Prior knowledge:
Elements: H1 3-17, H2 19-32, H3 37-57, E1 61-65, H4 70-81, E2 85-90, H5 93-102, E3 107-110, H6 116-126, E4 131-134, H7 149-177, E5 181-186, H8 199-219, E6 224-231, H9 237-243, H10 246-254, H11 264-275, E7 286-289
Parallel strand pairs: 1-2, 1-4, 2-3, 4-5, 5-6, 6-7
The structure holds NADP nicotinamide-adenine-dinucleotide phosphate.
NADP nicotinamide-adenine-dinucleotide phosphate (NAP) binds near residues 137 and 188.
Amino acid sequence: MRVSTLKSLTLFFVEVVGYREIFWYIVTYKNVQGKTPRERSIICGQNLARRMDNKQFQGKKALVTGAGKGIGRETAKRLAQLGTHVVALSRTQEDLDSLKFEIPSIEIVQCELQDWDCTRRKVQEIGAVDFLVNNAGVNKLDRFLDVKKEDLDCIMNVNFKAVFNVAQVVAAGMVDRKCGGAIVNVSSTASMRGLEEHAVYCASKAAVDKLTHVMALELGKHKIRVNSVNPTVALTELGRMAWSDPAKADPMLARIPMGRFLEVSEIVDAIVFLLSDQASMIHGVNLPVEGGLLTS
Ligand code: NAP
């Protein structure tokens, strides 16, 4: 074959397949060397999944609230790794600075979500958003009879009213732009089961679940999918506050058929799945991520 023909064919191949695909062919080729057929098929499948994931998340913009710590922080990082432009919104500036240091492409916005008007302004300034993860949340343990009004206000403000507020601004933008989108509200299994000393937390998450249903009902026609994830315990700062004491943790663990609490990454997996095209007909769902807790 003549050199010029070979060059034309190579250029044609690059044009049709794209540099990114060629990169993945090389990665896959190198990974499968010396592997058994079974290992090869697993590696090919994994690389295919990574390519598909990357493609659908690239060029999109995601807003993640409560992204300074815990589940929100890991969600922001995962989405950024998938090629999404992530806006991380949270309260503590140092957390946001350290996130930015870790992944410089992430845009950070400091915001106190209890401030309704300021939150609206800051979310409006963020502009067009394709994916919203309403994750920020707080808790304070108290017996029902002892709950103080300021704690009731604070938990409802962050866990419910801020979800409402942020989603209203973001969804209005999605409707105006006629581009659709996906919203995941981070709820909890506490919305579905009563937990001692969690009166306000349980009520706030039940409100999030029902809000998710109504948002799904009204926003579906605008191609905006809305779901919640409902995890059981993960030992983040919030989780440790409620579940570090073995006297509380052990009975809870005994009710989880899988016999353990969650890894944060397992919640992030569910969030990313609900945002993805793989969940294109999953809408209005409160998705438990709980190792079978709700069956017990
Ligand atoms: P976390 O580690 O305590 O992180 C919560 C994040 O939300 C922090 O970055 C926090 O910022 C931010 N935040 C809280 N109040 C805020 C406010 N008023 N304005 C702005 N940002 C605020 O908690 P997590 O465990 O990751 O929880 C994340 C979500 O998952 C919550 O909705 C929670 O209810 C839900 N969830 C958690 C568990 C669990 O076991 N961990 C289980 C089920 C559901 P600051 O630290 O600066 O306040």
